[in-house]
Structure formats: structure tokens, C-alpha cells
From TrEMBL:
Transmembrane regions: 20-37, 43-64, 85-103, 123-147
Domain Cation efflux protein transmembrane per the UniProt entry, residue ranges: 29-222
Origin: domain of life: Bacteria
Protein name, as recorded: Cation diffusion facilitator family transporter
Keyword Cytoplasm recorded: no
Keyword Ribonucleoprotein among UniProt keywords: no
Similarity comment: family membership: Belongs to the cation diffusion facilitator (CDF) transporter (TC 2.A.4) family.
InterPro entries in the record: Cation_efflux (IPR002524), Cation_efflux_TM (IPR058533), Cation_efflux_TMD_sf (IPR027469), CDF_Transporter (IPR050291)
One Pfam family linked to the record: Cation_efflux
Subcellular location: Membrane
Primary location group: membrane
Record's keyword terms, sorted: Membrane, Transmembrane, Transmembrane helix, Transport
Amino acid sequence: MNQLPKEIRPEMARARRLEWWTLAGMGSVVAAMYFAMGSSQAMKTAFIEDLLGLVPAVTFLVAARLEPRPPTRKYPYGFVRVDSLAFMASAVVLAAVGAWLLFDGVSALAAGEHPTIGPVTIFGHTVWLGWIMLAALAWSVVVPVVLGRLKRPVASKLCDKVLHTDALMQKADWQTGLAGMAGVLGIGMGLWWADSAAAAAIALSILYDGARNIRTAAAELLDGMPRQLESAEISPDAERLKRRLEARWPDGHVRLRESGRYILANVGDTCPPGDLPPLEEWMGDDAGWRLAQLSFTPPGCARSDED
């Protein structure tokens, strides 16, 4: 289980490339937002969200490097679950950013702050700073739209919740950019509240995604049933596997849990048969590599098969 299955190695290599592209692309977005930020609440919210949005990419790269390492004396089961830990870290960051930005936006709205966007001089020409803000925000929309669309199918094939969370962060990034543009245009039209209202709407969406992912990450760390990438509901492939095992051992107690991207199955109160088919056959038409262990733990009789 510590060796990455050959079926997903090409996708894992692609995921690593995407995350390096993310650090480069979103780094350019952060730089553009910083220099164009001005006094806009929505721009400040978008800048901080884009900056902290780099966290999932970093945690994925760290987890991908640690996951294949062999077991050690201090970590006899290896580092497979580092992906689960990285997922929790990404989810907490997402929720924390949303909560802080929501508070900041609502506070500014309640205080009735009237942000202003003045002119700036560039190469001897005076232009409205709002046009520069809108250009930076447009760039902050294009980059995450492209990256998010590329990551989602890869995350699905890898059953990688960290990469999926990063794709969600990319979605939050481009939504932030659109809301920020609405806020800047609102200021230009004299609607002082549009800026803070846009910032609060952005933050609420981020907070929702973060809270949902924390639920899923907690279930995984507590050895709960494998969850879907998109929600905290039990994944369909885990449900199908459970039914197959229950049909084969109707008197047994079938339990499934998730370890990183893998499923571990246990059948209790039943002695294992003399011969078992390969683990991937139990997954049917689902990704066979996901089932990494099938064990039996009746009193006085235990067996464990690992690939």
C-alpha cells in the first residue's frame, strides 16, 4: 500500500505538474492583486483569499512526496495517511479564511465605510485606479478557471481529496475575482456598500466549502466510511464493495474505512476461506487499486491480505 499503484502513476505525475503550475500562476495573480489593491475591501479580501489559496497546492506536493515512503520504526504503517492529514489542513485553512473574511466584510459594511478609488499616474498618464484593479481581477479569474477545470478530473481519478479541495479553492478564487469586479464597479458608480457586500458574499461561499470539507476530513481521520469527493456522504464505490462482501459473508460484520486514497475492509465474526480472489476483483467495475486490504478478525482466527 506504500507503493503508488501503477494504474494511477501517470495521473499523479500530472497532478504534481498542475500544482507546480498553480504555484506559478496564482503567484502571478497574488503579485498583480497586491500592486493594484488600493483601499477596496473586496480587493483586499480577494488578495488574502488568493494568497492563502496557495496552501492546498503546497500541502498536496508535500503529501505526494511523503506518501510513497517506506515504513519506519516510528511509523510502522508508512505514510499513506499523510494525504488525510493534508486534506484536514487544507479544509481548516479554507474555513478559517472564509470566517475571517466574512467578519472583516460585515464589519466594514456595518461601519458604513466609504472606500474611494482615485487616479494614479503611470508613465506620465493619469488613469483611474479602478481600471487597473479590474485588469488584475480579470487575471485572477482567468488563471483559476483554467487550473480548476484541469484539476477536477484528475482529483476524481486519484480519489484525492486534497487536490479536489484545491480545485474548490480555484473555484472560490474566480468567484472572488468576479465579486471583486462588481465591488470596484459599484464604487465607481457611487454605491459605497457594493464593495463590502461583495467581500462578505465571497467570504460566505469560502466558509461553506471549508466547513463541508472539515466534516469529510474528520470522518476520514476517525476511520469513518469512505466519503465522496464532493460531499460528506458515503462514496458509492464503498457502498457497492460493502454489499459484495456482505453477500459473500452474510453472517459477517463488514466494516470499511479510508486511509488516504485507499479503502481498507474488514470482515468480522467469520473465518477467511482458504483461497481469496485478487483484491481488485472485489471492486467490480470500480477502481480496483482502491481496495488495499481485506482482513478477517474472528476470535482466534485472523488474516490480512495486502497488495
